[in-house]
Design a protein that fits this description.
Blueprint lengths: L3 E6 L7 H15 L3 E5 L13 E4 L27 E4 L2 E4 H11 L4 E6 L1 H14 L3 E5 L15 H22 L1 E7 L6 H9 L4 E3 L7 H13 L5 E6 L11 E3 L5 E3 L2 H12 L3 E6 L3 H4 L4 H19 L5 E6 L2 E6 H4 L11 H8 L9
Parallel strand pairs: 1-2, 1-6, 6-7, 7-14, 8-10, 8-13, 9-10
Antiparallel strand pairs: 2-3, 4-5, 11-12, 14-15
Bound molecules: 6-O-phosphono-beta-D-fructofuranose.
Amino acid sequence: MVKKIGILTSGGDCAGLNAVIRAVTLRAINEYGWQVFGLKDGTLGLMRDPIDVIELRPSNFDGNLMRMGGTFLGSNNKGNPFGIIKKNGKKIEASDVIINSFKKLELDALIGIGGDGSLKILQTLTKKGNINFIGIPKTIDNDVKYNELSIGYDTAVDVATNALDMLQPTAASHRRAMILEVMGRDAGHIALNSGIAGGADVILIPEIPYTIKGIANHIDKIRSEGRNHALIVVAEAVKKEDGKKATVKFVDGEVRLGGIGTYLGDEIYKITDAETRVTVLGHVQRGAQPTHRDRLIASAFGVKAVDLIADGKFNRVVVWQDRGVKDVSLDDIAGKSQTISISDPLIDVAKGLGIYIGDIN
Ligand code: F6P
């Protein structure tokens, strides 16, 4: 009989995390009478002494929380829980510490809310520790396999679309080509969806090759048809023409995606008359207030995750498919990602609108 469950948010934050924590808490307590414990800062809370955990109650969610971006439990997208750490002067495997803490809490099951990277780590951890696990997909990148909508994605697309709405008037006022660089890692979902919704003229995604010449021709064509400005959306992992990724080395030594917008701005400026400006949207895509759709998906995922535990089904991930929540095996999802296929109907929509989307027919 399940009596106590734990919940954690792992990986990069996004909008809708507080809404899913609320849904899990309400369902587990109101329907089943269980206790719910929120583990702080992803798996980091389990590595602290004392273990960083709070008991969650419906009263935690009486007010604004479900409307707020971020995760009030905190998250972590750094470090490998399978690395060696020092504790009390001794060298130990971090995963052993995490698993031992989990056992100390005497939790019957764990709900982990994460993207493809986190789900892979949590799969390995929970297998090693023999922990009853349910995964919930969240990521603005929307790249979790077999899942049409991840929590946080809709809000990120909305933010990027709003940015295009705000760039268009200033582009027109100054006769410029405006470039918007959006997140999404190796998947072009945010760029493709916001580009169509925000009236972009050019959409570049990592999945489709392009040429600077192709973009320039398109901008010249727009000009010759009488329009004085253009909007270009580019996903952060789009490569330069030489096939290299645009990256930035941070002071912590980490190399992160960034800079493709500036590269394109310079290259387009060189071979067209178009004056270019670049906006890098960055983390505003993650911190916004969740859209109604993200709150709905978060709520549906939270309820289903608790029901799966009640049914004694573990090692599953809840997913959105065909207008509803289903569950699939964690083993089928972990470590795999979902990028845009060339046969995606939205590619045809973009082409049908006359958007330059790269060198495809
Ligand atoms: O995976 C989510 C994401 O926001 C990516 O779109 C982006 O590349 C990355 O995380 C940014 O990570 P960080 O918050 O570490 O800068």
